[in-house]
Design brief:
- The protein has ten helices and no strands.
- About 80% of the residues lie in helices and about 0% in strands.
- The chain has one domain.
- The chain is an all-alpha fold and about 210 residues long.
- It holds the Pfam family LysE.
- This is Lysine transporter LysE.
- Keywords: Cell membrane, Membrane, Transmembrane, Transmembrane helix.
Amino acid sequence: MQFSLWLALAGAGALISFTPGAGAINTMSNSLNAGFRRSIWGILGQQAALVVHVLIVALGVGVLVAGSPLAFNIIRYAGAAYLVYLGIRQFLSKPAIQEEQAAALRFEPAGSIFRRGFWVNLLNPKAIVFFLAFTPQFIRPDQPIVTQYAVLTATIVAIDILVMWFFFAAAARSFQRFTQTERGQLVLSKVFGVLFVAVGILLAFIH
């Protein structure tokens, strides 16, 4: 990949990552509940899903999904339902006012955080359609395809990790003081719960 083309890819990748969405909300929620360092597991889960999306597009399945209203709608509504489920669970969660309860929240298994991040990103068919439109701009048919997709994926993943961890997760740390009181925890739970539900609804109804 030419350096000028890679710079364009990096710029586009940064713009995509800084656009708030389900992944950003999930990252901030993890940073508040599990801590800044452990929020990386959710971010890595989201990147695993991103790699799956790129693979789907690279293998041509993205064309099938984009061209099949039924397949697209099934995945789209499944993704929306999962986000709404996460939002409702967050909204109804009770504050951890005891030290033991607070510690339990901060020690959620890394695998659980990873899986949640993975499903939040994977169940978003719009990402498949987006990459279907996005990747051809940076792929040259006369060059080795596998190498180009590897560079594209590595670039997007690296940028997204940096933005998610050092921007969204770090920004959530400024809200950490609210988690020290029962009222603060209730407010944050309801705010992030509503955000998850809102993103789920937008995913389901905005075309």
